[in-house]
Amino acid sequence: MNRSTANILSLSDEILLNILSNLNNMDVLCSLIGINRTLDRLARDTRFTQCLDLTRKLTNDADDVETRFLNRFCLDIIPRIEHHIECLTLDLSSIDHVLRIGSYVQLRQLTLLYLPIGSADLPLTSCCSSHIVCLNVRVPDITVCFSLLDGHLSQLQRFILHVNRIPQTLMINTNKRILSNLKYFSLTSLHRTTAYDSLIVPFVCQMFHLEKLTLSLIVYDRNSLVDGNSLVGDILSHMLNLHTFTFNIITEGVDLSEEFLPSIGDISRPLVKRGFNLDCYTDYNMLSRGQCHIYSLPFNMDCMHIHSHRFPGGLFLSVRCLQVQDFVQPFLFEFFLRISQSFPLLEKLVVFNPNPQKTAAEGGQDQNILVAYFRHLVELDIRGSYVDYVKLFLFNDSVYLPSLHTLHVKYEHLVMATDNFTNTTARVNCDNLRNLIFDLRPMIYSENFFLYFPSL
Q: Contact at 8 Å (CB) between 376 and 322?
């Protein structure tokens, strides 16, 4: 035992635990388990062993380091603490190793990230799945989650599902007893789906004992809008115990004429009658046809999509990531001013718009007086937009980006907007840039490129 270790061990358990509480619990476990009797005992305190997130530990590790870590964690650490573990967060690299090694008799909450398609053989039975009451899953395809609801999760009450794709499929005959026991269900998918009526509605309607429901979806190619009437008639009327309904649903590609778009009152009235607070807006164009965006208030999700320049604004304090797109109408400066005011804590913004911006005179605005402040924005993606939006965001006279450090942009647009990296006006918003991400990396950079971005 060296002198520094002896000095540390001279401190009381209470002081040592307070010090260790400021560290990541995975670091505590990996560093102190097996060192000596005192540190081993402190590291196995429930404050470090109840909730484990192995995804955070492995994020930046090389493959060989990750393998060594998993081997040690599964063989040396889990056997000493498995009876304390109540929450586990695992990803593809750790799921099989960790779930097969222990019995986890206290496990109540399981989070599985980035499960691959065809994960029906996950070893959930070996981790006392009958005790799990909360399952949080992030998967590429909704069919993956159906294989998890095979009867083993008999005590499941909360099911939180983040999914990239919801394709048309016949695979919805899951264990109805498990679904009927659920008290809370959350489904988030921010990619277009045409399976709302054929899959999502029948799936959710099997959960007739739900008390809380969250739906965040983009529905495409439907005969009518997903509005208050359809939400009440298709879903809510089947759930007599439901008291909390959180929703954020975009419908687009609806084949109806502009004059037949329902009014805001008609869209919202059935939900308002049931006591729900909400806002919505509609749009129509020849490309996306009829559109509607309906969302509950106060908005409490961290991510939002806006698919129309007609977004009315509001206050969305929870949103950290926002994607805005309109393939027919340009986004005027006024739109981004509204965005900056509506999302004051926004950290990431993605813009898709191929249309040239109108000038301030054309838009009827005095753009020289107003400034859109994005104080917390650290990442901006404008690769899918016209070059005008590069100019809008990089030149500080109308948009202020003091925290921006990552920019996704087309190299040729950056050359055009900065006059081949000679126009110094843009440098105010580019001073802190540490990451420039191009869809196509240039073979040769302009002579002034690295002088223009000194922090790269």
A: no
